[in-house]
Amino acid sequence: MRAILDQARPQMRALHDQLLDNRKQLPALMQGTLDERQLRTLADARGKTIADLIVLRTNVHLKIGKVLTEQQREQLHQLRGGRGQAPRDDYGPSSAITRIGDQCSSSLKSSGLERLANILCSGEHA
Predict the structure, then answer these.
(1) pTM exceeding 0.90
(2) Which of 16, 27, 103, 110 could bridge 68 with an S-S bond, Cβ 3.0-4.6 Å?
C-alpha cells in the first residue's frame, strides 16, 4: 500500500500545485477590464486539473482497495461513520467509489497516516 501511495504522491503534489497556481492567477484577471476569454481559459485549465486529480485519486483508491482485507474495509467504513454513504449495492461506480474510499481511509489511519487519509479519502487539499 505504501508503494502505491509513494508512486502517486508526486503526481498528486503536481496537480495540487497546478490548482494553487491557477487560483493565484485569478485576482490579476479581475483587475481592470475582465477578459472573458482569458477567464474561460483559466477556468478550463482548473477544471481539467480537478478532473485529473479525481482520476488519480480514484485509481489510487482502486489499487489500495485491492490490498485491503474485508476487516480493514469494515474498519474504514466505521471510521468514516457512514459519511457520504448511499445504500450499498454491488453495482455502479458510486458504490465502488464509496467502498474504495472506505478501504483507503481505514487502512491509512490504522497505519498512523491520518493526514494522508484525509487528503486522499475526503478530498482535503494539502
Answers:
(1) no
(2) 103
